[in-house]
Amino acid sequence: MVVTEVSSPPRPRSPAAARLLEGARHDGTLIEPLVGVLCPPDLVASIEGRAAVIRAGVPTHVIVRGVTARWLWTGGAPPRLADLAVTRQWRTGIRKHLAVVPSSYDVDTSWRGLVVASPRQLVVDAACAADEAAVHGLLGALAPTGLRPADALAHASAQRQLTGVPAARRLLARLVAE
User: Fold this and answer.
1) Which of 84, 115, 148, 171 is the least crowded, having the fewest Cβ atoms under 10 Å away?
2) Are 138 and 126 spatial neighbours (Cβ–Cβ below 8 Å)?
3) SS3 annotation, the chain
4) Radius of gyration over alpha carbons of the chain, in Å?
5) Is residue 155 over pLDDT 70?
6) Do 102 and 51 fall within a single domain?
7) How many domains does one find in the chain?
8) Entry pTM
9) CA torsion angle for 173, 83, 52, 13 (degrees, to 10)?
10) Could you tell me the residue range of the domain that residue 36 belongs to?
């Protein structure tokens, strides 16, 4: 069975329906990779499936970043909660609690409406956090996308509004020189 779309889990209207959903979770027929999103376990094996899971669990006009974007691009264990941000133009009402990223934040929009941090932005974010182990891990995991340390360095050099950019440039320059 190929599932290309997922939705929020149905609200059980009866105790029997609640037991049925709980049974499907318990026996592995359904998993909950993100809080509030149920899907068959084989769906998260592909990048397209992970994008469908994320799309079902996040509101529109948000940017998927951090551990959630890393899960989309590389797979592995899913995050329990989505790591999201908005650009200033979308920071209204209910989204006031989300982090704000600059308009220069590099995103990929090729996932049918899902806006996700690009591979090079993920590396720059990890470098800005001075997490050298994460930078090495991301560069290795994202190598199939064609990402090189020099690409991340060029992007970091163009970033002005992120905290930690000078340290990120130094770290990435050292990796490029290696």
Assistant:
1) 148
2) yes
3) CCCCCCCCCCCCCCHHHHHHHHHHHHCCCCEEEECCEEECHHHHHCHHHHHHHHHHHCCCCCEECHHHHHHHHHCCCCCCCCCEEEEHHHCCHHHHHCEEECCCCCEEEEECCEEEECHHHHHHHHHHCCCHHHHHHHHHHCHHHCCCHHHHHHHHHHCCCCCCHHHHHHHHHHHHHC
4) 18
5) yes
6) no
7) 2
8) 0.76
9) 170
10) 1-57
Q: Of 125, 147, 132, nearest to 67 (Cα)?
A: 125
Tens-digit pLDDT profile for residues 86-120: 876 555 554 445 677 888 889 998 887 889 999 99
Same domain flag for 82 and 98: yes
The pLDDT tens digits for 119-128 are: 999 999 999 9
Q: What is the pLDDT of residues 8-39, one digit of tens each?
A: 555 556 777 677 767 777 676 777 777 777 78
